[in-house]
Amino acid sequence: SADRSRLRALLVEDNPDDEALIIHALRRGGFDVDHLRVETAEALRDALAQDSWDVVIADYALPAFSGPQAFVIAQMQEKDLPFILVSGTVGEETIVEAVRQGIDDYLMKDTLRRLPGAVERAIEASRERTRRKLAEEALQRRDAILSSVGLAAKRLLACEDWREEIDEVLAQLGRAAEVDRSYLFSMRSEGHALFTQEAEWAAAGAKPRSGSSDFQDFDME
Fold first, then answer.
1. Tens digit of pLDDT for each residue in 17-26?
2. C-alpha–C-alpha distance, residues 46 and 36, integer Å
3. Which residues contact 123 (CB under 8 A, 6 or more apart)?
4. Separation of alpha carbons 149 and 152, rounded Å
5. Model's pTM, two decimal places?
6. What is the Cα–Cα distance from 61 to 88, expressed in whole angstroms?
7. Percentages of the chain per state (helix, strand, coil), in multiples of 5
8. Residue 38 CA to chain centroid, in angstroms?
């Protein structure tokens, strides 16, 4: 069997026998499984809220609700949590619709030998989506900062006294960088560079630090 790490699996399943088959398949595939079985939408919500999970494995049809409904609940509470459906015999259209929804994989209960590989692929796909999302957010933040710097330079060059514009400039830069505070420092040289805070912007809820002795005539080194 493959050498896989510990797996925290949340099972949406009403049948203890099927639960046992799923866990057996995962362990046979090399996973060290720590799992919880839930049968209702309420229990699913509670489990998602109270703990973290690597994957949700759900039966397609349960007495209280369905696997696709479980997927919607999971996505509302845990964005992009890997999700796999297992079922007895269903039509091809049902599988296509599940994949269109964003469900990572769909297995028949007589092909559970494929489950460890499906779980591994679903987890890696989720990680890749997260990496892409973080990269896109970083790129958007960089573009916002560069745009704000350009606008700040225009405003400061166009005004007669920088003090008239600095509050709004620092606010614009702080919001673009998604930080709690932004500062303007002046620099003077006395054999080495000394910096002094001249202005500050603090986001709502952030305590200003203006006037702090730590920001007066300090050496960056």
1. 999 999 999 9
2. 12
3. 54, 55, 82
4. 5
5. 0.66
6. 9
7. 50, 25, 25
8. 24
